[in-house]
Amino acid sequence: MDIRLKFLLILFCLSLTGCTSQPVKESDTANNTITESHEDPTPSKYPPQMTGINPPMTITKGKKKLNLMRILDGGICKNDLQGAKGTFLLYADSSDIDRIKKEKGSAIFKTFETKIQEISSTILQTAIDNTNLGEDPFALGPDEAQQKLASQLMLNFADAASESINKFQKETSLTIDITAFKPSLVFFQKGCDESKLDEETKDSEG
Q1: Is the Cβ–Cβ distance between 92 and 69 less than 8 Å?
Q2: Which residue has the higher pLDDT, 11 or 75?
Q3: What pLDDT score does 143 carry?
């Protein structure tokens, strides 16, 4: 079955924004123009299930501290009944950004955007494909069932991301990480419409 990936990427225009750690929102224009928000993340910017919960602005990867660069919203239907949507966080090392700009110029980051778009789409699709979205007969209720699915997807997302991100880092010398934001994850088990999933994801950004 041909599964079309619905992944709305809000990319980090490093050539324009430098080492800012502020998230942006994707515009609704046909050419997917990226507009930058200069406000700090607030609960109102996230879906209802994330109210009162903000993602970490920095994470540690090895010996490096990575800053939150962009928030990515994505969703995919695994089949006609099952699917998932959520928010994914893109982190990058600002010192790497500064170094690369000095060595290669800002234009190089346009190439990085394309690569990040490709690997992010692949990571999400692989994670969803490897997650068992069937109903859990042992779950005590819908909340527990959703939590179990979220934990499973988090692990699958991390596994799928590892190889792709390591390859990107070797090719670009830019340290990044892309993680699923667990409180944002929503699962569908009794019907998944890709067109509606796309609309819902856009609505969550507004």
Answers
A1: yes
A2: 75
A3: 81
Main-chain phi, psi angles of 143, to 5 degrees: -65, -45
Reported as type and span, the H/E element at residue 194 is helix 194-205
- CA–chain centroid gap for 77, Å, is 16
Tell me the C-alpha distance between 18 and 197, whole Å.
Answer: 32
* pLDDT tens per residue across span 109-151: 989 988 998 898 899 989 999 999 888 777 777 888 888 899 9
Contacts of 124 (CB under 8 A, 6+ apart): 5, 7, 74, 76, 88, 157, 160
CA-wise closest residue to 24 among 8, 35, 9: 35
Question: Which of 6 and 155 is assigned the larger pLDDT?
Answer: 155
Phi, psi of 30 (to 5 degrees): -65, -30
In b/e form, how buried is each residue of 64-103, taking b as 16+ CB within 10 angstroms?
Answer: eebbbbbbbbbbbbbeeebbbbbbbbbbbbbebbeebbee
Helix (H) or strand (E) holding 168: helix 142-172
Alpha-carbon gap, residue 102 to 78, rounded angstroms: 43
End-to-end C-alpha distance for the chain, whole angstroms: 32
Q: Please tell me what DSSP assigns to residue 126.
A: H
Task: Return the H-helix or E-strand segment holding 152.
Answer: helix 142-172
Q: Is the pTM of this model over 0.85?
A: no
Q: Which of 3-7, 28-32, 129-133, 141-145 has the highest mean pLDDT?
A: 129-133
